[in-house]
Amino acid sequence: MFSKSKIHEPGPKAEGDKPKTPETTAAPARPTTDYTPGATPRAKPAPSVLSSDLTITGNIKTTGDIQIEGVVEGDIRAHLLTVGESATIKGEITADDVVVNGRVVGRVRGLKVRLTSTARVEGDIIHKTIAIESGAHFEGSVQRQDDPLQNGQGTPKLAPPMAEPAPAPAQEKK
């Protein structure tokens, strides 16, 4: 697309040699660009945002930050979780930092839990530190633990009891 002027080139060259010069220059640049990202420190990624028109049925797990504005029916595990004013979460929340501006129906586990004045929480809160602003609605119990996240991972959810084989022979007698 662009061509060099013959004035800046040392010595006479044929027309066929001009396209080879940019290719030769471009080839060494690729290994240096492959090396550069490894040398620079990575910046913290931006939080993931789930918009208000999004409904998720299922669990969410991330090591990063997440901001929820929509509806989630499932458990959430994150580093920093922000529940937006228009958000509704039905499930257990486990995060290092939890900021609730919207509605949560379920258990909240976090090192730092903050309920803002627009928060609506129906469930237990297990925390290391907690802040509840004036105007927040909260129904449940509050329990302080030194490591609330560890207990959430170590406590297995029990399966429902299995039915005994006794009713099967009773059906045969009918």
From TrEMBL:
Residues 158-168 have a biased composition (Pro residues). Residues 1-50, 137-174 are annotated as: Disordered. Residues 22-37 have a biased composition (Low complexity). Residues 1-21 have a biased composition (Basic and acidic residues). It holds the Pfam family Bactofilin. It comes from the Bacteria. Coiled coil: none annotated. Belongs to the bactofilin family. This is Uncharacterized protein. The lineage of its organism: Bacteria, Pseudomonadati, Pseudomonadota, Alphaproteobacteria, Rhodobacterales.
